[in-house]
Amino acid sequence: MRYSSTLVLGAMLAAGVVFARPQPAVDEQPDVGAEVEVSRTAAQQFGGALKEALQQAIKTGGPANGVAICHDQAGKIAADLGAKLDMIVGRTSLKIRNPGNAPDNWELAVLKQFEARKAQGEPAGKLEFFAVIEDDQGQKTFRYMKAIPTASLCLACHGDKLDPEVDAKLKTLYPNDTARGFKEGDLRGAFTIAKPLP
Ligand code: HEC
Hints:
Elements lengths: L32 H53 L2 E5 L12 H15 L8 E7 L5 E10 L5 H4 L5 H10 L13 E10 L2
Antiparallel strand pairs: 1-4, 2-3, 3-4
Helix pairs in contact: 1-4
This protein binds heme C (HEC).
């Protein structure tokens, strides 16, 4: 996802809720409790729907068929869910397969923060972060990310030993694929959700 003026925020991530300029008084900070709850549910639903589609596809046509389903369905599932919830829903990673999932600066900083927190012993499945950011025009956006750990199911397409058919299919669809070589338990990436605030 692309936003204009979030560059400065990377250094400000220590606080749970951060603002670029102008710095508002504490009582002006929007209450985002509801957005956090909806985002948690959205991340769960997105992950659940993807896993279901993936498992079904692998069952009927093997992992190479799963690649096709991920290619065709991941973006659509995210767009449908986003439209339903009036939010922007997606996935991103430090090592991406689909260039359309590349992190923006805010997402990049949060992904690095997740890696650091994981290295310090936080359980990968529990890592989440949210903030309200403000752009040059004063538009505030609520943003939320939730880490996605690598499960054994994922290794068929994101591990380092891929079935030749899967490998070939991935090379055709994603010539610049970097989402390989993951081990079970690694952070594969994160769900990323945004909602412009009134
Ligand atoms: C059958 C192959 C396959 C399996 C199994 C699979 N993936 Fe993927 N994954 C893909 C493909 C293909 C894409 C690119 C989707 C797209 O074009 O948006 C992808 C993209 C992603 C992305 C988005 C970031 C990026 O790299 O573009 C994440 C995050 C992700 N997968 C996580 C997982 C996790 C976690 C699992 C296990 C639960 C998993 N995947 C299992 C094929 C697979």
